[in-house]
Design goal:
This protein has 13 helices and 12 strands. By secondary structure, the protein is an alpha/beta fold.
């Protein structure tokens, strides 16, 4: 009887050790470089910029986003940026509502010039004021997504070396956004990555998943060669983009415009992260279809990405540790109860509670600087839900028409 009790105690001790150590296999525990960079950016005054600012170009591609553009465009145009900048909006020629919005911003200063594309179709590049330009895409484009075509034409129209790519359904967190991003555009960098959060109207799980994804991607960029990035806040060099033929190699895929730039052009130590809250981009609440489609297009793009296996393995390790620990502790608690080992039952139940608490504390300390509004009591369950959500997305992708993700329909 004594031997059995000693064995039970040993088993319970091991279970408690596992419960306390398992949370260390979490993207939120590996936060030191990320959070320190965030605080460093927040505490850096504008006048302490390490280098002289240079002119910049902001490229916004839009498709049926007239309301978003009208609401957010003023925030792009009214940046505190003394070096001068241009905002180039690329819109569909047939999108009358968006064109009307652009014309209203243009006022009476509209002027146009024609440029031939493919020898037989035209786009219109109109200088509308000292900062805003727009490009109207032709009604059709073959073998290339309109999003990537819009980015390419916007980059070609830029007059500056650095181009900042974003979307009309996002808005800068402050008028220091462009200044903070541009401050990292140094000679030794060719990519500058900023953070994009969802607004507070967005459901908590979507916001949490965005933060967790960012932790994986930012750590990869800090520790080596970046693999991909969150959308809507990316700066890169025009010369490199054009010299290496832009999206060549993934033109047939409709989306992935941010991921493919980072994946193709990133080099070791060449990516700068800007995590100052002033440099954040705030994305409007997506509807369920938009959110789901983003994940499906990301799955479609994944096979084209280099250096993705390391991220996938790390994610699998983290999720295995999280779920295996929970199942182990639940099973041990049930067995102790069935065996009427009341002391063992108490210890395993405490181990289970301790695991949840430690997981929550670790994730809360990492998530709070990015989103104070997330419910602390929900964080552990959000972590569990992510795996099942992604499995559901993978299942949807397996049953989707793969032609929906490509411009090559033949």
């Amino acid at each position: 009887m004594i031997a059995i009790n000693i064995n039970i105690l040993i088993i319970c001790g091991l279970l408690m050790t596992v419960a306390l150590l398992a949370p260390l296999l979490s993207p939120f525990f590996r936060k030191r470089g990320i959070v320190s960079l965030l605080h460093e950016g927040a505490n850096t005054a504008a006048e302490e910029e390490p280098q002289e600012l240079q002119p910049m170009t902001v490229v916004i591609t839009t498709h049926d986003n007239a309301e978003d553009l009208e609401r957010n465009l003023p925030k792009f145009l009214h940046q505190d940026y003394p070096a001068g900048f241009r905002v180039i909006v690329v819109a569909d020629k047939s999108d009358n509502d968006t064109v009307d919005v652009l014309k209203r911003f243009a006022g009476s200063q509209s002027a146009a010039s024609e440029t031939a594309i493919d020898g037989n179709e035209n786009i219109k590049l109109s200088a509308v004021n000292a900062q805003l330009y727009y490009i109207l895409l032709p009604s059709s484009s073959r073998y290339m997504s309109r999003k990537k075509l819009g980015v390419t034409l916007g980059v070609k129209a830029a007059k500056t070396e650095w181009v900042l790519l974003t979307d009309p359904f996002c808005s800068p967190a402050s008028d220091q956004w462009l200044r903070k991003m541009a401050s990292k555009a140094t000679e030794d960098k060719n990519l500058v990555v900023g953070y994009t959060c969802y607004n507070q109207d967005t459901p908590g799980f979507m916001r949490f998943e965005r933060i967790q994804t960012a932790f994986y991607l930012m750590r990869r960029a800090l520790g080596g060669t970046a693999c991909r990035t969150l959308p809507s806040n990316l700066m890169f060099r025009k010369a490199e983009f054009l010299e290496q033929e832009g999206y060549k190699g993934n033109l047939e895929l409709i989306r992935g415009e941010y991921d493919f730039i980072v994946n193709k052009y990133a080099r070791p130590g060449g990516t700068a992260l800007v995590l100052s809250p002033d440099a954040w981009m705030i994305e409007d609440k997506p509807n369920k279809k938009t959110w789901r489609d983003k994940h499906l297009f990301a799955i479609a793009s994944r096979p084209k990405l280099c250096r993705r296996k390391g991220l996938s393995l790390l994610y699998a390790l983290d999720q295995t540790a999280l779920h295996a620990t929970l199942l182990l502790l639940l099973a041990a608690t049930a067995v102790m109860g069935c065996m009427q080992e009341w002391m063992g039952l108490g210890i395993t139940a405490c181990a289970l509670i301790a695991n949840v608490i430690v997981n929550t504390v670790v994730s809360r300390s990492a998530v709070k600087p990015f989103d104070e509004g997330l419910s602390t009591s929900s964080l552990y369950f959000y972590q569990l839900r992510i795996l099942w959500s992604r499995m559901a997305m993978q299942f949807r992708f397996w049953h989707a028409n793969k032609l929906d993700f490509t411009t090559h329909k033949q």
